[in-house]
Amino acid sequence: MLVPLTPGWPKVKRSFFDGHVFVETFPALIRAFWLDVKIFLVAVPCIFVLALLIALARNTRNPALFPLRAFAAVYTDVFRGIPVILTIYLIGFGVPGLGLSREWGRPVIWGSVALILAYSAYVSEVFRAGIESVHESQRAAARSLGMTNGQTMRSIVLPQAVRRVVPPLMNDFISLQKDVALVSLIGPVEILRRAGIEKSLFANFTPYVGAAIIFLAVTIPLTRTADYLMARQRRRTGGTAIA
Amino acid sequence: MKLRISGVVKSFGPTRVLDGMNLDVAQSEVICLIGASGSGKSTLLRCINLLEPIDDGQILLDGDDISQPGRDPDPIRRRIGMVFQSFNLFPHMSVVDNVAIGPRKVLGVNATTAREQGRALLDRLDLADRADAYPDHLSGGQQQRVAIARSLAMNPEVMLLDEITSALDPELIGEVLDVVRDLKRDGMTMLLATHEMGFAREIADRVCFLHQGQILEDAPPDQLFSNPREERTQQFLQRVVDAGRM
After folding, report:
1. Is the ipTM of this complex over 0.85?
2. Which residue did the predictor score with more confidence, B89 or A230?
């Protein structure tokens, strides 16, 4: 509220909230944002599957599967321990250097792969917590019917686990939606880079504000959708199914 | 003999919960297991259903040793139904899907048929109007009856009932016990761990008093309740009477 009273306000207003620049650059930003959306839409299912596999690997109880458990543990340790931006640099610059064909060496591909690898580590921990939150007695009930370990996991444990982790999962995916912009740092012209280009063209920061508005236009509905799904779930099961 | 427990030993850490237990159960026989908490009632039932591996001894179902290490437990569990104190219904499925899931996944019955059979079973247990509700919207007594229906859907040869009324409000116990009475009438072989002494006396063919992992006394209900042979049994029953539970 008091910001307009500060001495620098007129200047800031000119360089960040210029209506003319906004109108001029907004369409280009929207077009560039399409790349963010595409990366996001490809990454989400990949992360979902990879994270689930890692979580399941970490939850195996068979002693013979120890190597699988150990691999999953090391994977999550490594990728949770490295900043996402660093993973993007390492994979985005490193893998194309292996001499891949031009088509497969594109930074957008390996930047996305880096995002998928990093976020799978986060999301697998969410899944693991969800799986462990399903009470042992649910397994006992399923096994006592004669269901196999795999059937019990698929039909009884996972459906409950996934429902419980919807809110933290949505949070991770909302973070992902924003972190897609990090891929711009290794080259692809997505919205953040486009905003940077427009900023230089107009010598004005308004394109960044435009980019922020576009991000909010996506993340706020996503958050509200998550809330709605949760509320519907609570209504249907009377509330006790969700921890 | 339908079921034979022979010299079964089960320890949790240093505690011997089952200490050489022996018990024979004939076809269509109803056996009530009574005894203090920790006497091994629940553990025995869980061992029979292979939810806990045993350390020594044998469990024979129709003369077949089901307790051999390394044996696939799943085909055996199909033949043995188990109902738990805490119901353990699947909260993410409607009542009818809870009942249909066993036949669908384990017996390979298609979903439509399994649900039809499930509805018929629920109808028998007076639960037809709750078939499409979710478990959390049911009373405890209704939930426990659904749990019984879920087990019955697998057409088990033996039913293990583990203190199935202990978590229920007193006014809801009757409806669950009625179902057990019906099962007895249908000739179901049953083992019940129970604190309902009046009910045990009414329904059991034999009552077993468990103490420190062994069956200390095994007798027809009238004899065991009116004229217990063992001093420990007398003490236990006296405590139950003092607590106003009989």
Report:
1. yes
2. B89
Say which DSSP state A8 is in. T
Percent of chain B with pLDDT over 70: 99
Q: Which residues in chain B touch residue A241, judged by CB atoms under 8 angstroms apart?
A: 91-92, 136
Indicate the pTM of the whole model: 0.83
Q: What is residue B82's three-state secondary structure?
A: strand
Q: For residue A142, give the chain B residue with the closest CA.
A: B102
Handedness of CA A26, A29, A31, A33 (dihedral sign): negative
Rounded Cα–Cα distance for residues A115 and A70 (Å): 22
Are A42 and A35 within 8 A, CB to CB? no
What total of structural domains would you count in chain B?
Answer: 1
| B71 interfacial to chain A (CB closer than 8 Å) | no
Of B216, B191, B186, B193, which Cα lies nearest the Cα of B205? B191
Percent of chain B scoring above 90 in pLDDT: 88
Q: Would you say B57 and B8 are in contact if contact means Cβ atoms under 8 Å apart?
A: yes
Query: Is residue B177 included in any domain, yes or no?
Result: yes
Structural domain contains residue B181: yes
